Amino acid sequence: MKTSISPELLANYFAGRATAIQKQSIDEWARDPANWELFYEALARWENQQPQYITDPEAALQRHQARMAKFRSIGAEVSGSTDTVPVLQLATRNQFTRLWWVAASVVLVALAGWLTRPLWQYKQFQTAYGQTERITLPDGSRVVLNANSRLRIPRFGFGEASREVLLTGEASFAVTHTPTDQPFVVHTPSRFSVLVLGTEFTVNTRRQGGRVVLSKGRVKLRYADGQTNRQLLMTPGDEVTLDKRGQVQRQRLAQPEAASAWQQNRYVFTNTTLSEISQLFADNYGLQLQFDEPELANWTVSGSFPASSATELLEVLMEASSLAYTREEDRIRIYKPSN
After folding, report:
1. Shortest CA distance to 193 belongs to which of 173, 178, 217, 179?
2. Which of 195, 210, 289, 337 is buried most deeply by CB count within 10 Å?
3. How far apart are CA 146 and CA 27, in angstroms?
4. Where in this chain does the record put each Protein FecR C-terminal domain (predicted)?
């Protein structure tokens, strides 16, 4: 009988409580790109509900090294010799008991590490509302992580066997080329991934779908169209958007670098509605824009606006639109000022 993959089963899987058959079923299910969004959403939800699982890998490594040093010292006591050639001796009962407890502790540490594998296996970078972060990956590739976003990279082996990262939110990448032409893959929870060799591009995985803008080089976009996996080769200047149903639209941009202008605290809009801009405020700053009159949401804005904060951006947009606003906590009221 085929196992049904439910949120409860995934939670047991992340916590290490799934049976061998359930683990096999989930592993097979998770290989299908069509299931990635549900998998990563369940993982993020489980992690947020497990504050006790927040780990300090560096401290854990130091504790493990200390245990190993203790283990070696016990071994030296048992051998009773400093010779480099191992000497097999029988341990006394007390020494055997001490060795057993040390070995058992090592096994427990390994078991605990396996159970929390989804957490410690990846190094995570996360930004708050209104914050950006510049990251240099082990292979020399550069990432600028936009506000309210998260990037995970493998803690071990990145750049050796593979170069794969997981992005939630928005980031710009400048990927270095390797002598072995090793691909660089950006996975997302939005039913698509981006495969590159060496290039510059921006990926957005916000809730309204997905968006990839290519500035330099070439990338291959892999996405799920219903139950069918498809690929699309992008060239510089391409903008590809994907909705939640997997529908793809591609268009050419005269200035693809405008998509990543936020790196320089600049926002570029071309006939962008205030409704669309309100989504940016929600995603990047956690603010909700409310319009006194529904027609205001359809007003459009064009231009390049420098802003290093939500307040600065709101001020220049209101001035450009001849509108006014009031703010109460995280709610912004937009209205026409009286003459």
Report:
1. 173
2. 210
3. 31
4. 266-334
